[in-house]
Design a protein that fits this description.
alpha/beta, binds flavin mononucleotide, 7 helices, about 160 residues, two-stranded antiparallel ribbon
């Protein structure tokens, strides 16, 4: 059966993951896929009608968005049977510190607990200006300076790779 109906479910604290999810929807719609975009705390009736479910989460304090974790927990049986993909939006993937960057590579496993996505990705998000003190702490502790680190080309090419 040809893949046609796609669901993108996202958990975003401050909006950058939501914008990435939105770009993914447009990218797929431009290729004639039918795409539903939902925040993880919205009700999604009848998951079984989707051929591919893409789950995206921002990270705060080392953890995925709680609504994403709830979505996974509540729909685990279906997710086990479906084609799935998971992406993460965080800052430490762009860190100058090797240990922080390496730790970020493991974030997808925190979402994909109990099911096996066919693809995972970790994208850099947006580090907001935290004032001089916040920025200094961010740079010293996390190895990240404020800025929008989203790489739209990378995001689009991963999205397209899912439907090839
Ligand atoms: C309070 C707070 C905590 C954060 N904790 C982490 C973290 O533990 N690891 C990380 O890589 N990024 C962390 N970040 C960076 C966010 O993941 C990044 O800003 C991302 O773009 C947020 O996505 P959102 O705008 O969809 O919420 C944190 C950001 C904030 C504001």
């Amino acid at each position: 059966m040809k893949l046609k109906n796609v669901l993108i479910v996202y958990g975003s604290f401050l909006g950058s993951t939501k914008e990435i999810s939105s770009r993914m929807k447009t990218t797929l719609e431009n290729r004639n896929y039918i795409v539903d975009l939902k925040s993880a705390d919205e009700k999604v009736p009848n998951l079984s009608r989707y051929d591919l479910i893409i789950i995206g989460s921002a990270i705060h304090g080392g953890l995925p968005h709680p609504a994403v974790l709830n979505f996974v927990k509540s729909n685990l049986d279906t997710l086990k049977k479906k084609r799935t993909a998971v992406f993460i939006v965080c800052m430490t993937i762009a860190s100058t510190k090797a240990d922080k960057k390496e730790a970020a590579m493991h974030y997808p496993h925190k979402v994909a607990a109990g099911f096996r996505p066919e693809s995972t990705a970790v994208f850099a998000g947006t580090a907001r200006d935290g004032g001089w003190f916040g920025n200094l702490v961010g740079e010293l502790m996390l190895g990240v300076k404020p800025g929008d680190y989203r790489d739209w080309k990378k995001i689009e090419s991963w999205t397209v790779s899912l439907v090839k």
